[in-house]
């Protein structure tokens, strides 16, 4: 089934290129590249956070996070291919950029060779980090070697710096340079918030799936509740950052900033912006507010699916306005969704067969299982 | 043992795990209510004690939402109904500007409900005495020991059985908590000392006030906005555009004298849309000086000084559209030159609107 969906989606995606033109194709590609990337990075961040802080509650969940972080591999492949989108989507890579004084002034940062070098460096750093955390953890399953935990613990602070800088690069490069005149200092934090949220949601879905199959039986209310609490906290954090960015630009009303929001608050985009507020904040906030909702995996899965959907909408809202005043959504978008969701599911299916469902070699697992709120 | 019925019996544990293990055993005996006193929250204790879900969450939610609504209504009424002030060319009822305050007030209401609700409703404060506070164990249990008490519930309480039960589950330093506070008398010296201290404090404060007011000059009220060492932020009217510059989309204005402009005609039709635009321009720019009816009764205080024209007076009813246009573009004595800030349409639309105001005040029979 998944295979058929992927194949069909891939066909539709390829057809997009020829029927609707390269612009629409690469815009879709970019959104889905960012989607896989943010879920993978978010999950890797959760893993690293555990090593950094010595948290115990999340040890039984960590393998799921490590598996989700494997999405970084297809994401990096997609990112490398997305370099072909530069002349199509990014005005600064076009010939007319030299005549635009604002863009020309940024040419030191926004030029194709440097951009590609940054993108490749980021991808390399992510893959190395993924190998250290997820690969080391898998090896520990067999070797039960506590030194591997120690290695992850030492690497974690370094990863935090990597995560911060690379998220910033992704935000400045892939997202905000779509409108190169625009700048927002907080866009990196914004993307980080969305990314961690997407990672948490994907981990929640994975845990829910495993639990439904009768795996991860030792996982209790207390663990699930903590995961739900993270989701809740970052729903609020994302909203806080998103609104902070909007409020400042709206108030200051400077032409080089506010045009970005003007694009997104006119015509049909206004509806998309409102939907984003509703789906990314209001609904998940109230859905996660009650205590029972955070601890009940079946309810949590619905919210996590909603959060992932809202995150997609968020990326769509970030990228697609460059195509014009009308938000396009029809078979090409569905095709891309089918293809990339299919690829992710196939990838996850493979990952779910590797190693145990919990990091059985981790010395902290017993304490993690005994965790009580 | 203290006289009267005991409040309960208490024992100490050295380890939270022992305490946790003891709770279900004691609860199963049904000797009384089992209560724990620990120096920090012990994971899983609430569940073991069978504490009911706190009602605070619901209260906090309701009060938080009430805070959101209060802040919204408060700001909305103030800013867009009672006293609309236009700043930065923004609609005074813009919801965006209200959000930070809404957020703060939500948090304020919610945290106060949580804090006070916990102290007053759940912890039953103010309580001036609790048997636990007088016990030997209270010292240990605020440091490094974990206390478990079996407290009297209902009429019968078998203190001896409770003692035995605690002993069985491994508690040490068992103690019986008295049911009534020990009689206390405040010594006379303490009362006298308090009175004397209070009197001295009052005298000192009074003297400090007296000499403070005498010695230090009266401070002027704050007037930072007026006395700042830069361009006066409160200056009247807009700053003129730079010499010789022409704003994009605006034509330079050629006339120097009102007579030259007299012949200009209003190019805009008198449609509802135009009047609505005119009303907006008027409300944002002219109303503050000329008054809502353009009859020269300003909203500004007398400190403003100027006497805005009563555009309803005979003299100004006779002005042609072109002359009003000239006033907007060039200003007139105390009337600032505002036109540079408007588009061509806005200038003519506000003239339509002033005409409508004049017509409304001087309606003819045929208008009815």
Q: How do the strands and helices of this protein lay out in sequence?
A:
The complex is a heterodimer of chains A (373) and B (368).
Chain A (H helix, E strand, L loop, with lengths): L1 H18 L2 H32 L5 H11 L2 H11 L3 H4 L11 H5 L6 H32 L2 H30 L11 H26 L8 H32 L2 H10 L3 H21 L2 H5 L1 H23 L11 H22 L12 H5 L4
Helix pairs in contact in A: 1-2, 1-15, 2-3, 2-4, 2-7, 2-8, 2-9, 2-14, 2-15, 3-7, 3-9, 4-7, 7-8, 8-9, 9-10, 9-14, 10-12, 10-14, 12-14
Chain B lengths: L7 E6 L2 H14 L3 E5 L7 H5 L6 H27 L16 H24 L14 H5 L4 E6 L7 H10 L3 E6 L10 H28 L42 H4 L10 H19 L23 H4 L3 H10 L13 H18 L7
Antiparallel strand pairs in B: 1-3, 1-4, 2-3
Helix pairs in contact in B: 3-4, 9-12
What does this molecule look like?
The complex is a heterodimer of chains A (about 375) and B (about 375). Chain A has one domain (about 1-370). Chain A is built from 16 helices and no strands. Chain A has helices at about 1-20, 20-55, 60-70, 70-80, 85-90, 100-105, 110-145, 145-175, 185-210, 220-250, 255-265, 270-290, 290-295, 295-320, 330-350, 365-370. In chain A, helix 2 packs across helix 7 and helix 8 packs across helix 9. Chain B folds into two domains: about 1-185, no CATH class; about 260-365, Cytochrome c-like domain (Cytochrome Bc1 Complex, Chain D, domain 2, Orthogonal Bundle), CATH 1.10.760.10. Chain B has helices at about 15-30, 45-50, 55-80, 100-120, 135-140, 160-170, 190-215, 260, 270-290, 315, 320-330, 345-360, and strands spanning about 10-15, 35, 145-150, 170-175. Classes of the chains: A mainly alpha (about 375), B alpha+beta (about 375). Chains A and B meet through helix 10 of A and loops of B.
